[in-house]
Amino acid sequence: MRKFYAFVRKEFYHIFRDKRTLIILFGIPIVQILLFGYVITNDLKDVKIAIYDPTPSEFSQNLVHKLESSGYFIVEKILNSPNEAENLFKKGNIREVILFEAGINENLEKYGIGHIQLLIDASDPNMGNLVNQYTQGVIRTYQRQIAKDRTMKLGVNIESRMMFNPDLDSVFMFVPGIMAMILMLISAMMTSISIAREKEMGTMEVLLVSPLQPFQIILGKVTPYVFLSFVNALTIIILGNMVFGVPLKGSLILLLGESFLFILLALSLGIFISIISKTQQVAMSISLFALMLPTVLLSGFIFPIENMPKILQVISLFMPPRWFIIIVKNIMIKGTGLLYVWKETLIIIAMIIFFIIMSVKKFKMRLE
Predict the structure, then answer these.
(1) What angle do CA 328, 323, 126 make, to 5 degrees?
(2) Which residues fall within 8 angstroms of residue 348, CB to CB, at 6 or more apart?
(3) How far apart are the C-alpha atoms of 34 and 279, rounded to whole Å?
(4) Contact by Cβ (8 Å): 97, 79
(5) Predicted structure pTM score
(6) Per-residue pLDDT tens over the stretch 143-167
(7) How far, in Å, CA of 198 to CA of 350, rounded?
(8) Where are the beta strands (DSSP E) in the chain?
(9) 242 or 190, which is more confident
(10) What single DSSP character describes residue 307?
(11) Could you state, in order of their start, the residue ranges of all structural domains in the chain?
(12) Which fold has domain 47-163?
């Protein structure tokens, strides 16, 4: 038994000396439980809304205050006309517009009933449904509070209108998200093993003595995958539209152009991973771990970013799929043009340039 205990002790020593093993054993579980614990939630927090109140009154002003003090909503804008609502939704600034009828306070006093309309961005159906439920809950609670002080029973008629996705079809959320995930993972993984494979097979020397410049070598590695990934993107768009009924309200050419940019970003990221990895296995592991979880959790694909802690919201700014999902939803579901997605497009272009520069720089360092 002494020999066995000595062998076990030796194994413990080996584990504790290997920093990578310790990170896998203790670091990854901690990161995962923190991410899943903070990200996976059905609670609303700080949802941006807009208010249209043509005749401000005690009732409407108190209700707006109740909405803000609930912690669920932030009044981002006061509208001068209900026609402003759709433009705000397309810009992506707000999730909901609350429209009070003219003279709602007088109607409640005279007839005991008033009307409120909720316009909700349902391009993300789960979020749209939650916003509707929470808003109606706050309104009903306030209605019961003021009814206690009156002899006449008051009624508020709430009409909810789901914008862009009236039937709350879940595919409106999943198709853009899956499109981003597939293009990011497949494109990055395909290229991440390319240069790493050259190193393992011993053919890197051939590239090093060739007359090609580092940028040309990287471009040559990426070019075949650009075409193949673009075919993937086109297939996803066609299946989403023809099979699942996701509309294509905007320009197909613009959508394909944005998809091409995102493919370039994924491929440039894959090349960067490939250059910094010594083996194909390491490159594949980095691609899966570094891209899979962030794409699912921090891109807004499934879980709303505004519900996350501030630190995770900041981290999500550096997640490429976040910006592509916004672009796809705007073009396909909301029918917007480049005027509404130019900021996200510039962010993607900036990321492409960054990863290409870093790849060339790292490649030059390898050459030296």
Answers:
(1) 65
(2) 258, 261, 262, 265, 320, 323, 324, 327
(3) 30
(4) yes
(5) 0.82
(6) 888 776 665 566 788 899 999 988 8
(7) 28
(8) 47-52, 73-78, 96-100, 113-121, 155-163
(9) 242
(10) G
(11) 47-163, 171-367
(12) abc type-2 transporter like fold (3.40.1710)
